[in-house]
Amino acid sequence: MENILIDKQENIAIVTINRPTxxxxxxxxxxxxxxxxxxDLNNDSAVKAIVLIGSGEKAFVAGADISEFANFSVxxxxxxxxxGQELLFDFVQNLSTPVIAAVNGFALxxxxxxxxxxxxxxxxxxxxxxxxxxxxxxxxxxxxxxxxAQLVGKGRAMEMIMTANMIDAETAKNYGLVNHVVSQxxxxxxxxxxxxxxxxxxxxxxxxxIASINANFEDGVNGFQTEIKNFGxxxxxxxxxxGTTAFLEKRKAVxxxx
Length: 258
Hints:
Layout: E1 4-9, E2 12-17, H1 28-42, E3 49-54, E4 59-61, H2 74-93, E5 99-103, E6 106-108, H3 110-117, E7 120-124, E8 128-130, H4 144-152, H5 154-163, E9 167-168, H6 169-175, E10 180-182, H7 184-199, H8 203-215, H9 223-234, H10 238-248
Helix pairs in contact: 1-2, 2-3, 3-4, 4-5, 8-9
């Protein structure tokens, strides 16, 4: 892979977008590589959590590679958004392996959309986030209008998208866009520390929790019914038997992810 790096550390995988000279901008090749990497890691039973970060100190992902689509037609533009959402943004959101975005530096346009596709976000103190697409005469096309409103509320999403203003890390935390803010030096280790806590728990239960939470945001889907079904499904797993037995025996559970 030319544009990303993968580092597996026990049950955690660190995925680094590695285009520092382009501020890690998302081009077609990078989107395809990320899709393949996330797909492979999701199918690797040894990987229980994924941390996504950008290389260097300036940017998580500074946006999409505008030169690739500046001359697109209406049909090509629509296909670009549809394909991108299918290959990467919706794909990451619905991944059964938890993905934590470690937002270091700029997360703009497609970069913020990618961070929002992850299951949650932590940021460095120097992070800047925004959706500046209207300055190019276009709107966010990789789910930004939907996910930003879900995370920060309709009014704030409207203002951020209409003004194209960037917000800093503390503002993002206050808005609920990121969960934690730490120094850039601490960011990766901090994200990994959360990932380690996740890996101590049942991966099959976590996968069902992700699906149940996501169901709340799907049109025509009753999230409560999804939760009931997934709750019941957990009773048939080895992890449920181990977790309940360990609790009753007052010992630490050892989950197999089955």
